[in-house]
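Re: [ENG-882] Designed sequences occasionally contain unexpected residues at chain ends

Forwarding the minimal case from QA. Structure tokens:
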């Protein structure tokens, strides 16, 4: 079962040879400006959102965590900073350009011994069952071609009793704030992307991909369908983003 997309987006995916190829190409093109654009678009709030998400992950000492769609590594870095001693993270992403920027950052921050970045596909994770003490992702789920497959894979590689945390842009629940948010996202962000990143289309995709992404209660239901229990979500910043948390049951 694939994530539906608007006909406009479907055409773009088809022209690129499929959604994964389109997404990889797009992040490859914007990798250089990705971190800067995040700070500008969110006025720095993305750091707070990631900090909130990794607090929900609550990795203790000596744990091994996975960051799916790690990109330039910011969520994995936040996770290590809030985790217990000797905890390690593996970040997986299918865009080599994003990983290259991430690796430079890890060297600069002296974190390369605690965070390993690997090329891989979030829909087919190259790890045995029950490997990780926590699995997280930020701004990735919208980009998956097959959301249920991505959720099933995260479930599979988690140890029983461990948590999955997902930070993603969502649809703000309030009508007025929601309308203002969509206007900002649909009109201003692509312009900013054009000026800073020389890519109007890539940042227009951000809004287009949200339009067809499940709302927070629906994503909760999808997580439950994948097997997660005790699933809950937190709206942050008026519901601009949501952090979903689920647990892999012990039996
Ligand atoms: C919006 S970026 C988020 C990066 C990072 N998580 C962050 O917090 O900034 C989305 C990332 O997901 C990656 N991605 C999308 N689909 C993927 C898949 N199926 N497998 C691996 N990586 C994927 C993209 O390459 C991109 O780096």
């Amino acid at each position: 079962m694939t994530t539906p997309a608007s006909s406009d987006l479907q055409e773009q995916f088809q022209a690129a040879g499929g959604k994964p190829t389109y997404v990889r190409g797009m992040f490859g093109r914007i990798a250089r400006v990705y971190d800067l654009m995040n700070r500008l678009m969110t006025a720095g709030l993305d750091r707070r959102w990631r900090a909130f998400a990794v607090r929900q992950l609550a990795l203790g000492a000596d744990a091994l965590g996975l960051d799916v769609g790690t990109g330039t590594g910011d969520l994995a870095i936040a996770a290590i900073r809030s985790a217990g001693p000797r905890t390690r993270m593996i970040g997986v992403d299918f865009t080599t350009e994003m990983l290259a920027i991430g690796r430079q950052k890890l060297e600069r921050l002296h974190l390369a011994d605690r965070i390993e970045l690997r090329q891989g596909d979030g829909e087919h994770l190259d790890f045995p069952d029950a490997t990780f003490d926590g699995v997280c992702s930020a701004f990735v789920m919208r980009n998956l071609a097959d959301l249920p497959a991505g959720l099933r894979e995260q479930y599979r590689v988690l140890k029983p009793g461990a948590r999955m945390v997902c930070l993603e842009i969502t649809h703000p629940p309030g009508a007025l704030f929601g309308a203002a948010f969509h206007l900002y996202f649909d009109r201003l962000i692509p312009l900013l992307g054009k000026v800073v990143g020389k890519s109007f289309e890539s940042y227009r995709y951000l809004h287009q991909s949200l339009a067809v992404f499940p709302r927070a209660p629906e994503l909760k239901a999808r997580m439950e369908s994948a097997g997660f229990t005790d699933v809950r979500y937190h709206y942050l910043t008026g519901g601009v983003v949501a952090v979903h948390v689920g647990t892999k049951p012990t039996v």
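QA comment: On inspection the terminal residues look reasonable. The pocket of S-adenosylmethionine is lined by residues 20, 23-24, 27, 69-71, 74-75, 93-95, 98, 121-123, 138-140, 143-144 (CB under 6 Å). Proposing we downgrade this to a documentation issue.
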